[in-house]
Fold this sequence. Notes:
Elements lengths: L25 H17 L3 E3 L9 E4 L7 E12 L2 E5 L7 E7 L2 E7 L5 E7 H14 L14 E3 L8
Antiparallel strand pairs: 1-2, 2-3, 3-6, 4-5, 5-8, 6-7
Amino acid sequence: MAVLEIRTLPDPVLRRKAKRVTTIDGSIQKLIDDMIDTLRAVHGAGLAAPQIGVSLRIAVIGIPEKEVITLINPEIVRREGVRVVEEGCLSYPGYYGEIKRSEVVKVKAQNRQGKQFRLKGEELLAQALEHETDHLNGILYIDHVESPDKLWKVTSQDSEP
Length: 161
């Protein structure tokens, strides 16, 4: 297992739509393990494979106090409500933005054994599901920022949202 380098803008892999995973083999299992190690090392809430330079539809989400969730080929099947959140990204470090995200998100995906499952997320989990699914489609949170005054540089005295 390894901690991998996080890709940052303007790396083109971040703007590509990731490819579906067709076979979950040993290399995919190792990739997932490395993604989890990387997520823990950088203290992130989620990580999508393109953020480590791999254009595959895999994401891991690590919400505090919960087990890490692995999503292979995730698709958002339902969104409910709208809320305004402050969001940052490991691939666009040093900035936060105010954007709109859904209050509730439902996804269907495969787990690391290839079994289909559905997951309903609210609050931070809903936000992470949307954020990571966006990454798999080549979209970053800054694409949702409505105006330049809704994006700000983090200074040393700022705390993370």
